[in-house]
Amino acid sequence: MKPLRWYDYITQNIYWFALSMGSGSLTPIITPLLVQQFVDPGLKNTFYGVLRAAGLAVAILVQPAAGLLSDRSTSRWGRRRPFIAVGALLTALCVLAMVVARSYWALFAVMLVMQFSTNIAHGALQGIIPDLVPEGQRGRASAAKSLFDLAPTILVAFTIARLVRGDDVSLGLIALAGIYVAAMLVTVLGVREAPLDRAPEGSVAEPLLRTLGLLLGVAIGAVAAGVAAALVGAVAYGVTWLVAGAAEARLVAVGVGGLVAMVGTIIAGVWAAVHLGTGDARRHVSFTWWVVNRLAFMAAVGSILSFALYFLQDVLHLPDAKQATANLQAAAGVFTLVMVLVSGFLADRFGRRPLVLAAGVVAAVGTFLLVVAGNVTMVLVAGCLIGGGTGLFYTASWALGTDLVPAGEAGRFLGIQNVAGAGAGIVGAGLGGVLADFFNRAQPGSGYLVIFAMFGVCFLVSTLVMTQVRARAAAVAQPAR
Fold this sequence. Notes:
By secondary structure, the chain is mainly α. It has 18 helices and no strands.
């Protein structure tokens, strides 16, 4: 491999910036605004949650498939760039199609196609650094990638969010389409990539079937958690009915059952997925609990951001909820970035596990503060705490995971956590939306407080299960003397 020139750090990583601008604009701001234009206000969280869950399901299948196919590509453009080019152009067209969508189901169809196209590029993009960066420069290349990944969480507030005028998201979508195309052109024209002479041996069928097997594991876990939730909810209903009456019992039963379903799906789904992916989850107990920790944390973070606009709009009644959402994301992004920058030092000083434990507690405190927030200032403080916990988590958790995976099998084991992670996102968004609408019907605005409290519990669960992770002795740093 040739040493990188200074601008290679930009050309190889600029498309991460486009992907993050897309997710940072569409998930918390543009898509919620569009959904509420097309559906009954009392069901907007449910419809939005279904849209998010369906998109994540598409991503689970397409991203690893695109990565595998790009591994075997013999195009004269190289292995990765053709997939990035096609995926980016299709994504830009889908973003523009959102401008003319005139119904929820038209938007739904466009979003599914966009998830397909986005993950074609995403799956191939992940191979750029391993393919082209010399080992001695991968730390700097990864740092550049992280910078391009995190910067949009701050920049969206000053760019795309300001182009959205009330419910008119057209200018924001047009700008976003331009960002995808511009970043793709810099990547395709600027990256040096030699074509393969011939495709690698072996079939893509086995890895794809393994992905389907992991999805089956998550589904099995969801069914088991659903049964447990129904039983626990029934007991909660009976006890509350005796004490307070039928109306209160119904709310308590749904709340307790929903929490059990959410947390239970994450735990049971991970154990089933790891068992199917490795043959025996009991041989990899620490790895399995590490995945549970990651999924509980990430499902909570992603879901809070997904429902933030509706919360600020319906609970705090802010006149410009989309800009407030962008500001909340920016505040969290600043603290995430700061903690990412210092957490590497902290992980070496205190070890990985203490930082992961602290991350869950800090994020939980921020989330519970969000539940009781009565003004924008408290919301921003809550966002800073959640962002700080997330920054600690990003670096320390991934470093811990690389210590836990068996030597020589990192790709397979880390692939398991990727698939199961998206499954947890499906649970957080899909179930969270239904629960929010249910409780909002009982008392307007209360649904967001209930699901945010559940996400706070998910953060605490992530901390609790970390006590079951036993890192290898070599991976735990000792304090300097």
